[in-house]
C-alpha cells in the first residue's frame, strides 16, 4: 500500500512539473470593447547598448541664409528714398524780387475868401513783390497802398491840400498856419 501511494504522488508531481515546463503565453484581445488582456509568463526584457545619436541636424539652420537677399532689397529702397529727398530740396529754392516805388509829389490847394481852417495830408506808398520763376511764365504782384491823413482845425469853410511828399506837407502846413494868423 505504501508503494501505491508513493507511486501516485510521484505521478502527480511529474504531471505538475511537465505542465509548468510547457506553459505558453496567452494573449486575448477583445476588439468589441477595446479591452486587452495580456498574460506574460517568465518574460525578461534586457536593453543593452541603447544610445541615440542625432547627427546632421544643423543643415536646416544654414539654409536660412536666404534672408540676406531681403536685406539687399531694403538697401535698394533706401537709395530710392534718397533720390526723392533731393527732389524735394530742389523745389524749395524760390527767390523774391522786391521793388518799392514812391509816387511823385503833387499839390492841389483850394482856398475861399474866409481863412483856411482844415488841412488834409495824404501820403501814398506802393510796394510791389514779384516772384521769380524758372521760365518767367508766371508773375505774382502784391501791391500795398498806405494813406496817412491828418486834419487840423475846424470851421464852416474848408480848403483841401493833397500831396505826397513829407517835405512839402511840412512847408504847406507852415504857410497855411501863417495865413490863418495874419
TrEMBL record:
Residues 1-23 form the signal peptide. Residues 36-52, 59-73 have a biased composition (Low complexity). Keywords: Signal. The keyword Signal applies. Residues 36-73 are annotated as: Disordered. This is Uncharacterized protein. It comes from Mytilus galloprovincialis (Mediterranean mussel).
Amino acid at each position: 500500500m505504501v508503494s501505491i501511494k508513493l507511486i501516485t504522488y510521484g505521478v502527480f508531481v511529474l504531471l505538475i512539473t511537465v505542465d509548468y515546463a510547457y506553459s505558453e503565453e496567452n494573449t486575448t484581445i477583445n476588439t468589441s470593447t477595446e479591452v486587452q488582456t495580456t498574460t506574460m509568463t517568465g518574460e525578461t526584457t534586457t536593453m543593452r547598448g541603447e544610445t541615440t545619436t542625432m547627427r546632421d541636424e544643423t543643415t536646416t539652420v544654414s539654409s536660412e541664409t536666404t534672408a540676406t537677399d531681403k536685406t539687399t532689397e531694403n538697401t535698394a529702397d533706401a537709395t530710392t528714398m534718397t533720390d526723392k529727398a533731393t527732389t524735394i530740396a530742389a523745389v524749395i529754392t524760390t527767390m523774391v524780387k522786391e521793388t518799392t516805388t514812391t509816387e511823385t509829389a503833387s499839390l492841389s490847394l483850394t482856398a475861399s475868401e474866409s481863412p483856411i481852417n482844415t488841412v488834409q495830408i495824404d501820403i501814398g506808398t506802393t510796394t510791389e513783390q514779384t516772384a521769380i520763376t524758372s521760365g518767367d511764365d508766371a508773375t505774382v504782384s502784391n501791391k500795398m497802398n498806405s494813406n496817412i491823413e491828418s486834419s487840423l482845425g475846424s470851421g464852416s469853410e474848408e480848403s483841401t491840400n493833397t500831396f505826397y511828399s513829407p517835405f512839402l506837407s511840412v512847408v504847406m502846413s507852415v504857410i497855411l498856419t501863417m495865413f490863418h494868423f495874419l
